[in-house]
Each structure stands twice: as C-alpha cells, then as structure tokens.
Amino acid sequence: MVKNRTLFLLDYCLTPYDKITSCGILCEKGKIIATGGASAFAMDEEGLEVIALKNAYAIPGLIDSHIHGIGITDSADAAKGTPTLSEMSRLLARHGVTTFCPTLVSLPEKDMLAAVDNLVREIETGCSYADTCGIHLEGPFLNPNKRGSQKAENIRPVDLGFARELIAAGRHHIRLMTFAPELADSVKLVELLLENGIIPSMGHSEATEKETLDCVEAGVRRCTYVFNGMPALNHREVSLTTVALTDDRISVELIADGIHVLPRMMDLVHRSKPRGKLIGISNSVVPSDAAERRDEVESAPRIIRSADGKIIGSTLTLEHSWHHLVRYANMPVEEAAACFTLNPAKDLGLITRGEIFPGRRADLTIFDTETHQVRMTVSRGNVVYRKD
Fold this sequence. Notes:
This protein is of the alpha/beta class. Helices cover 27% and strands 27% of the residues.
C-alpha cells in the first residue's frame, strides 16, 4: 500500500526542551509519527514527500493566546459581521503561528454578543492556515481604573446574567476570560466560568492580596499580561502583581517585546515563575491608521500608543518575541521556545500541541539559522506558508 507521508529534514529542532541535531520529522495524516536523526529515515519509501531545508531549524508551532488583530483585521470587526478569522489565520501563518485565540476587548452588550456569535460561526467553518482554539474575552468585567485603552462605557461590574449570555453565544468556543478579582461576585464568576470549561484569567485589576487569593482558591490559575494593567510592585503592599509572581499555581502571560515590560523586569518574571508557568503572548493590535498604511503595518512592527501616550499594544508577532526572552531574561533557548509553544498548549488544555514528539499534531515553525526569520509554517502536517 502506498503511504502518504512527509519527512522534514533540518539542521536541528527544539522539541522544545530537547535538541535533535541533523533531525528528521516524519508526519502522516496531520500527526508526527517519528522524530530522530535524519540517517534513521528511509528516503526511498513510495509516496514519501521529502522536504529538506538547509540552514534551517524547527520548533513546535507558535501558539498565541492573546491577540486582538494583525494587519488591518481586528477580532472586534466580527461585531459588524465582517469576516475576520480567515485573514488573521493567513497572516499569522506567515509569522509562524499555528494556533491562536482571537481576543475581544469590552464592547457594548449587543456588539459583544454579535462578535462572539460571528467568531463562533467562523471557528466552526474552520481556518485553512493558523488554527483557532477558542475565543479570549478580555472583559467586560474589569476595573475601570485599569482599563488601559478600553472604553470606560464598555466596562461593567460582574453581571452573571450577561456572563451566561456570552457563554451561550460562545457555544463552547470561549477558551479564556480576563476579569478583575476585586469586583463583587468575582468568585461566583470564576465558578461559572469553570463550570463551562472557560479559563478565568486575572487582569485589568487593582486587586489586593486577599481578593486575589479568594479567586485563586476558587480555581483561577492564570494572570493576563503580568505588570500591565495592574499595580506596580510595592514592598509594603501585596497586590495581584505580587501574588501572580510568587504563587506557583498561577501561570502568567508576558508581552515579551522589551517595551511593555522592560528587559530587567522580564528577567524578574523568569526568575519568579517555575518552569512551564510563563506564557509568551503578542497582544498584537491593529493601528487606527492601518488601512492607510497597510504595507508599513505588515512589514515594520511597532508599538502603538494612545493620544495621551499610553501603550495600547503593538504590531509585533511571536516569532520576534521568543528571542527577546533569550536576550532579556537570560533564558536558555529551549526554555524560551517552550514559553510560546508547550507552556500555552498545556495551559489551554491543548494536549496534542506544543511539542515535536510522536503522536502530537504536526504543527511546526521553521526558521532560518542565520536570520531567525520564518521560512516555513506547517499546520496539521500541511505547509501553509513558505517564504520562497
């Protein structure tokens, strides 16, 4: 019987924690079925496609669990019925991302429900390039004093009725919700989210130690972009920030561009969290002038600020960020790669992703060994982007 397999041959791969030199990665039906030294694989098997890339290395496909938009396409466009995920999927594949969570900021009630409903329709249709693993709702139950660039009129106290409406509109496709632990009924919200398979994540908050720990005891295990949208560290006052860094139960998101969080503070996060508890995200947003400057937006990543100078986000994507962790946080390259692959996969419950290992999904990001630019993206065993 003729087999239909693909063998990728590379200088090396990071699994992420192990390095295999002169490696081969054999894939079939969207899964990795074997890894090892290239010499261990037969090249003359009938039906075998061999993709040999010199001066190239692979890591597991990048996973971005906090991304608002890319290019000129924003997740919130879904509120207007505008298709968003197919274009986000295509553009993200060019940057090595194989899995992402489209992230919605707080919107007016009707708009937020419409956006969730329309995103779900697209998720159920499927994406051909980078894959979606669910929606991240960044709000609307946030502290208005820590809303960042979100509009004050869209922020609201915990409303369990509206939360249930959002959950119903999500039809089991809401993966994450960011909320402020100090809000009344936040523990009840945590319980509701966990009952419906949604990961609660603490952020946009001024929560005290007790308010934070009440939610942790209720089952919260994640913090949205540590240091941003929360109190600064204070040696005389314990807050969400302190607990997130020192409680080993909590995974923390980190925007690893060296600007949202300065390099030495990135090193502090690395030193504070156990292995596996640091999750790299992009927090990528669409600039207000994106339509007029489309070519520049897609080719020249930059930090986006509001009129009063607040950092809103950036147009950077994950392929840049994991090298920042190596430089800024003095992190071994294997551990840094895990922050953008295996760590988010485990945190999100994606048990078949995040590793180059037999039985895992065949998601690969392949880089040039000299420039560290993405040369190829493989999603479910299919080449969905090739630089040349």
